[in-house]
Each structure stands twice: as C-alpha cells, then as structure tokens.
Amino acid sequence: MTVSEELYKRALEHIPWGTQTNAKRPIRDFSGVMPFFVESAKGCRFKDVDGDEYIDYRLALGPVILGYGYPGVDEAVRAQLEKGVLFSMASPLEMELAERICRLVPSVEMVRFGKNGVDANASNVRIARAFSGKDKIIRCGYNGYHDWFSTGIAGNGVPKALSDYVYIVQYGDVEGLEKILKRDASSISCILSAPYDFNEDTSGEYPRALRRLADEYGIILIFDEVLTGFRLSIGGAQEYFGVRPDLTSFAKAIANGFPLSAFGGKRELMRKLDDFVLTATYAGETLSLAAAITTLKIMEEEKVHDHINRMGRRLMDGFSEIAERGGIEVKIGGFPVASYFLFNYAKDETNKKLQVELNRELFKEHVFVYDRWFISFSHKEKDIDETLGKFERALKRCMKG
Length: 401
Prior knowledge:
This protein has two domains: about 5-70 and about 305-400, Aspartate Aminotransferase, domain 1 (Alpha-Beta Complex); about 70-300, Type I PLP-dependent aspartate aminotransferase-like (Major domain) (Aspartate Aminotransferase, domain 2). The chain is globular. By secondary structure, the chain is α/β, with parallel strands linked by helices. It is about 40% helix and about 15% strand. The strands form three sheets. A seven-stranded mixed beta sheet has the order 4-10-9-8-7-5-6, sandwiched between helices. A four-stranded mixed beta sheet has the order 1-2-3-13. It has a three-stranded antiparallel beta sheet with strand order 11-12-14. The longest helix is centred in the last third of the chain and has 23 residues, at about 305-325.
C-alpha cells in the first residue's frame, strides 16, 4: 500500500468518509493512481504524502485563485497573527473588507461574513423569508447541506414536512420555473440559484431570465456565487453577465483558501437583520479577513483575471490542437478560468469509460484534475505547456487502451 492508502485506512477508523469534504473522498475508479492526502503545496503544485508532485487544476475545489502559499496573502496573515486572531469586540478589518466588497460588486450595498458557502446561502434565505414574510423557496443546483437543501432524500435526518417548503428546478429550466411561479408565487420568498453552473451555456440567458421572472412575480433573487464569485470576474458572474441579484452568497476564491464567506445585497434587505439575530462567533476571525482584503487587492492591482483567462485559453487551445491531431471526438468548453474537456462520441457509455481512463492516465502523469480545469494566478506558461505535454501522452495511452 502507498502511504496515502495506509493513511486512508487509518482515517476510516475515526472519521466518517475518512475526510471532511464529500468531494475529497477517494474515488474508486481512480484507485491506485489518485493521491488521497496532500502533504504540502506551493504555487500551482502540491506534494502528496508519498512525495510525488502534481500540477494542480482542482485548487482545493476552487478557493485557491492566486496560488498556494501566495506571498502577499501569507505575509498579511502572519502580520495579523502578531496582532491577534479573535477579539472580544469587532476588528476594523471587518469594515475594510465590507467596503471593498461593496465597491467591487455593485449589487452589494451591505455585507456580513461567515465561514462556508453554506453559511452564506442559509443566511440569505433567512433574510429573504424574514423580509418577504413568505416561507417557500425555489432552489437550483447545489447550495449546501442545510435541511432546506436536502429535502426529499430518505434517511438523511431531514423532516419530510420541509419538502412542502422547497421547490427544486434544474439549471436552465426557465419553463419549469415559470410554472411554479404562476402556481404559487404568493407563497414564495426567493429564488436561489448559481448564475452559472460551469457547464455548456455561457450566454448568460438563464441568469437574465431569473432576474426577469423575479421582477415579474415580486420574488427576491439570490445568486449563489460561492464558486463563481471573484473567479469568473472580480465582480463575479453577475458582473460578467450584467445581471444584478437582490442578495448574493460568496465564498471560495474570496480569500485564496482561508476560511471565509460573505452574504450581502440591497440595503433594505440587509437591514432586516436589525430585527432578528443571525450570528456566528468566528465570522469576524481576523486572519481570514486579512487574507481576503489582500487577495482582492492583488486581484485589482495585478490584473489577475486577465492572466488566468489567458492561461486558461492557452490550455483550451492546446486541448483542441491535441484532439485534432489525434482525430479524437471531443467537446471543449466553459470559461477559460474553469474549462472542461469531454469526449463526444455517440455512445454515452464510451464517453464515460474514456473519461475515467483519461483521468487515470493524468494522475499517472502527476496532473491533478477532476471535472473542471481551474486556473490560478500561479499557473504560468511553462506550467500550461508542461501540462499539455503530459496531457497528450495521457490521451494517447487512454485511446490505445
């Protein structure tokens, strides 16, 4: 057994899943080639517990936008550590970060902080319900683990009665959404949806339709920008598509991997928090606030998004050239900051099998990716070109197998 496999066996004795995050659970299809535990990381690479180095395109599931151990961010955190991590009253850093977010994201006039994307989504739903006086919600996509998200699944500890308060629509299903609103808009407080789900449609038609329908039926619109916020552009997907929600949830890329989330929006909605208690002891933890302030400052001053888009486009163009040379049927899409490479043959079974084999071969080449190719500011041309060389070798072996 590798050290990774030995540690995983040990972890299962005391940790359900053997890890804290569902997406970090070992995948059976990649047994023997996928590292289970990371020892250290720097820039766009990490080393696993067996001492192997990987070029990383998963980036801790999206939060690491500048790169692991990014000097400016880590320096700001070390400096703040000397001053203190948590105080008996608020830190001025809360105000500084709030002002910066409100300037960068035009739809946000007031903002509060949390620790996870689920915190932000749950808080925004609470605000929408309190402000509207309505109990039901419409949700779309993955929004976290809270009861209102996990309805309709047997045996997961969520009361069946909560299903009566939650409508579920699929991303892009404007017709299904409108049917729900026509039938029950008077009982619905909000629509919660990601403005972009990192799949094929990059047109922005769906978030624009959400805004139109929310306005038409008098429903609060919440954008779940946990993944897209500060990654798709510095103002998130809403800036990119030109659609302003009423409330927004942020996390992931906001602090380059330090644990922080934010929820905010229109002043009149956020002022509803004056009427009830929504609080968390660690929301004002200063190290993450310092990391976020510095991360956003670097994004602005060093044109981070120009770079990650350029590197992402270089990667996507390389994929296209490699596939064309090999006469391989593929579908390459998404935005350069988080693109995808999928096989595109007639049979889905063939595509799935090839995708698994490609991933296995990429792990052997020490390229770490799954599902989407996230780009960081630390990915440079030499890293992209090295990746493309490894990718071509992996793809050739995949097609031969």
